[in-house]
Amino acid sequence: MRAKKGDRLVQHGRVVGQHDHVVEVVEVLGPEGNPPYRVRAEDGHETIMSPGPDCLVDHKKEHQR
Questions:
Q1: Are 31 and 24 contacting, i.e. CB atoms less than 8 angstroms apart?
Q2: What angle do CA 49, 3, 35 make, to 5 degrees?
């Protein structure tokens, strides 16, 4: 998985009825776009995240359209 600043990470819900969790990458801490990432949720909370296999990258240019 590789991401850049401004990309979104979408973590899918693990159980029926649980919504996807979407965060924005504000800093890439790993080499060459690899995890971990500093991310910001919609409520402004920031944390460090190393996404698992249930997470997808929504690249910035794709969600600007």
A1: no
A2: 35
